[in-house]
Amino acid sequence: MHFTSETSSDGVVERRFVLDGVPGVLWQPDGSGLGGRPLVLLGHGGGGDRWGPRERARRCVARYGWAAVALDAPGHGERARTAQDERFATEVGELLAAGRPLSAWVARHTAALAERAVPEWRAVLDALAGAAGTAGTAGTAGEGLGPVGYWGLSLATVIGIPLTAVEPRIRAAVFGLAGHASLVEAAGRVAVPVQFVLQWDDELQPREGALALYGALGSRERTLYANPGGHRAVPGFEAAASEGFLLRHLGHG
Fold first, then answer.
1. What is the full DSSP assignment across 86-97?
2. In angstroms, rounded to a whole number, what is the distance separating the alpha carbons of residues 168 and 48?
């Protein structure tokens, strides 16, 4: 993991890095290391990038003392795009504008992006766990990472469900705005507590698919938060609900 820059403001350190060609950002409390500190993995939606969750990341650090990390998903942000990635971005925009559900091709491409992203997230966790036990990060050395949580809707859920299914370090997750049938098998292997956000009038992800995906989760503790409105109309108060859920399972930093 190669850190390329570091800035600090309002008690939050923001550190850009690159790992095996994948750009990311790490946020943590100023003057503190990662050792034993809860860490939240923040995914972004289709067409977004690692800076999308920036406000949430800074709030997680300032309010709860957590660390947070975000990555550019394959084909997003500063990462190289294939012709298929370009087509994906264009078609998603057109579907949103037309109020139509995801096409079968877009769903397949999204699943392919997730296949590439899961090992990237696991590599970042490995690198941060190693750094947490050394003096390699800002602050003092620690005993390794604390509890890990995941937050991400839409494309970030398509990535987050298979990631959580195979990554034992994740203890709780916030998912939603997704209903891909291809996720059902992985959802059955998710055993951690889950909060699932659903938009009742979602034009990209019809509620039937989202409800089926929620029902397929193997988690004994799972809660469904359903709100009226379209894909991009998630109420602001859901942010506080998601943070409260993660706080119950990760604790304060």
1. HHHHHHHHHHHH
2. 27
Neighbour order of strands in the sheet with 148-151: 2-9, 12-19, 22-29, 67-71, 39-42, 148-151, 170-176, 194-199, 222-227
Superfamily, domain 2-250: Alpha/Beta hydrolase fold, catalytic domain (3.40.50.1820)
Q: pTM of the entire structure? A: 0.92
Which residues 6+ apart lie within 8 Å of 167 measured at CB? 121, 122, 125, 148
Contact predicate 218/190, CB 8 Å: yes
pLDDT in tens, 168-187: 999 999 999 999 899 999 99
Structure tokens that stand for 182 in this block = 């291809």
Domain residue extents for the chain: 2-250
Residue 242: name the closest of 15, 35, 12, 43 by CA: 43
CB 163 within 8 A of CB 170: yes
72-117 pLDDT, tens digit per residue, is 999 998 998 889 888 988 888 898 889 899 888 888 999 999 999 9
Question: Residue 71: beta bridge partners?
Answer: 24
CA-CA distance, 157 to 106, in Å (whole number)?
A: 15
Q: What angle do CA 211, 160, 82 make, to 5 degrees?
A: 110
Our measurement of the distance from residue 40's CA atom to the centroid of its chain's CA atoms, rounded to an integer in Å, reads 8
Structure tokens that stand for 79 in this block = 């990462």
Q: Which pLDDT value is given to residue 155?
A: 94
